Amino acid sequence: MKTLKILCSFSLLFLMGYLAAAQSSNEERLNLPGDNLNLYAVMTLFQESETLESFEKNLNAQDSRINNLDLNNDDRTDYIRVIDNVDGNVHTIVLQVSVNKHENQDIAVFTVQRDADNNVVIQLVGDEELYGKGYIIEPYYDDVAASETPNPGYVGKTKIYKGEKVTVVRTTYYEVAAWPLVRFIYTPTYVVWHSPWYWGYYPPYWNPWSPFYWDYYYGYHSNYYNHYYSHYRHSQHYRYAHYNDHYYNDHRSYSNTVYQHRQSGSYNNTYSRPDMRKQGSADFKRRNSDNRRTDDRQGKISDEHRYKSKSQINKPSRRTEVNNPTGKPSARPDARSPRSKPEIKRNETRPSSGNTTERTNVNKHTSRPSHEVKSGNSRSTSKSETKKSTSKGDRSKSSDEKKRR
């Protein structure tokens, strides 16, 4: 009887711990497409970047594990381009995805504004289609404690997160002005950045991959949460007074395709593997152990950690082509030739023939023209030599006949 009570107690404790962990993860989950792009990670990357071009490149790097969006449900991550719209001393820096040839969808927008004293205020606002209304991330400014009512979760310079105290790191507007990227966009020689890439045209380094299940993505980034929540917080209001006038009404792009996918529940399959959370956390620790980088850090991710959209579930798997940009037939050109249209390139290199052998032979034929020329010269040379030998033989015969006469 005593043993049974002990077992029941342990079972109850285990169940309470499981429910607490599930509740914590559900608080991080919006049940919206934006769950697969952590804006805390995006803000951190922005703070560490030096130019908008490098920020865009690192945001789309597979090794950074930040971009996990697949808005058009083609089982390939989407390329996020960066567009800066300038209005005086205010920069509205848009993160945008080309969903198809005719539609773009804004993901989030940075508002960066500088006053006459060179103080800078920055916010990152998630688009309402992906994050809901009023999803705003900003640093912990010093004026927050003085101007806003403290949350019950705050204790002095600490914050209660998952039952533990997290040290809050506050900053000033002057310190934000010293961020490398902020200094860069306010230099007199700054050329306004507008990403040159769009649907069908992507940079050489871009190789889309199959997105991860959300729980794997969540487990991976959970190792950063103490950093995220100690430096950044949710805000309840826009600091840029003309956010609606300048950005929302004039520049915002939204996609009906994304809206329809969201309404139909097409994005929900990403939540179907909660067992992947521990594996995501373990992979983070493995990749970052001993400060190993590049190949040692990147490693290989099992296909089971990646998800398929609802439209891809009954289709043959393409996950063996993770490093092959042809996963999007009409949208992802060869990464090594970003300036050529994908349709044209396929027609040139892959003739419309059902015979694989013939296609291979044609490729060899076009790829080695110098060998064909040499072989043609050798054939022409052998013919001329044959003619010369024949003419010599005729002359020798005629001379013999004269001697006989």
Write the layout of secondary structure elements.
Elements (H helix, E strand, L loop, with lengths): L1 H27 L10 H10 L3 H8 L20 E8 L2 E9 L5 E11 L5 E7 L1 H4 L4 E4 L2 H6 L6 E2 L2 E4 L2 E4 L5 H5 L2 H6 L28 H8 L3 H7 E4 L7 H6 L7 H9 L12 H12 L5 H5 L43 H8 L6 H12 L1 H36 L1
Antiparallel strand pairs: 1-2, 2-3, 3-4, 4-5, 5-9, 6-7, 7-8
Helix pairs in contact: 8-12
Topology pattern, helix = H, strand = E: HHHEEEEHEHEEEHHHHEHHHHHHH
Silhouette: globular
Main structural class? alpha+beta
Instruction: Give the tally of β-strands.
Output: 9
Q: What is the residue-mean pLDDT, rounded to a whole number? A: 75
Which stretches are poorly predicted, pLDDT < 50 over at least 5 residues?
A: 14-25, 292-301, 313-390
Number of domains: 2
Total of helices? 16
What is the distance, rounded to the nearest whole angstrom, between the alpha carbons of the first and last residues?
136 Å
Strand content: 5-15%
Largest sheet: 6 strands, antiparallel
What is the strand arrangement across the widest sheet? 1-2-3-4-5-9
What level of helicity do the residues show? 40-55%
The assembly state of the depicted protein chains is single chain
Which value, in Å, is the CA radius of gyration?
31 Å
